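Methods, example record. To illustrate the input and output format used throughout this study, we show the complete record for Fumarylacetoacetate hydrolase. The sequence lines were provided to the predictor; the line carrying structure tokens was produced by it.
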Amino acid sequence: MRIGNLDGRLVIIDATETRALDVATASGGRFGPDPQSVFERWTDFAGWAASADVVAGEEFDPIRLGPPVPRPPQVFGIGPNYRDHAQEAELDLPAEPMVFTKFPSSVTGPFAEVRLPSDRVDYEVELVVVIGKKGHAIPVERAWDHVAGLTVGQDVSERAVQFRDKPAQFSLGKSYPGFAPIGPALVTPDELPDRDRLQIGCRTGEETLQQGTTADMVFPVAELVARLSSVVTLLPGDVVFTGTPAGVGSVRSPRRYLSRGEVVESTIEGVGRIRTTFV
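The corresponding predicted structure is encoded as:
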């Protein structure tokens, strides 16, 4: 199942991503139109949606899609969580996940224009996990039961703010307006042949910026959910940016930051593609 935010309304999207079924209309008001509200009733909704007639939906232009999770209660970011990225940054593999937040006001949609506040803005394509069931101290073997779905994200980072002093300001440097583009849809894990091994990457024009696999994660999705919930109560609609593979600009030689006018296309196998224009 793929669910989305079309013009601010909750929809189910077909496999070709060309038709969308309005949930409030199709369910006769059983579920409301607000894309964020569905996570509070995720189990009930998923049961209904499994038999919904998506083919009866309208054709749509993907440019109309907004963030599938427009107002997450909590947004978690994970520091170096890919082995190849830790290696390129000359960092030891972490014994525990390094956790920060991207403030929810930074969330934007899959085809957004994002203003560059400086000439030191970096890109980080990431698999984004969305929580569908509240939980605290979730055992790792039950962690996927608490996941509503997956989407594509960019953890855009202003490195001058992030590293201008000690300790580093990860959360502020990663929370300018539009610095958390996500989408195009939320894909339930059953849609994927191997939810823990997905190709992930981003490019601008003909230039490949990052290319990797989620199988390279130090802490896979289930372990991240379990470890986060050992401290924090995870809430329906929470968003977890799970880390990025090698290729980020700030550790290249020479460094490679984003320029005005660049369009970054981020993709994850089986999940989708987003396009972010930097202005």
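Annotations derived from this record:
The two ends are 33 Å apart (CA to CA).
Helices lie at 23-26, 42-49, 83-88, 159-162, 170-173, 221-229.
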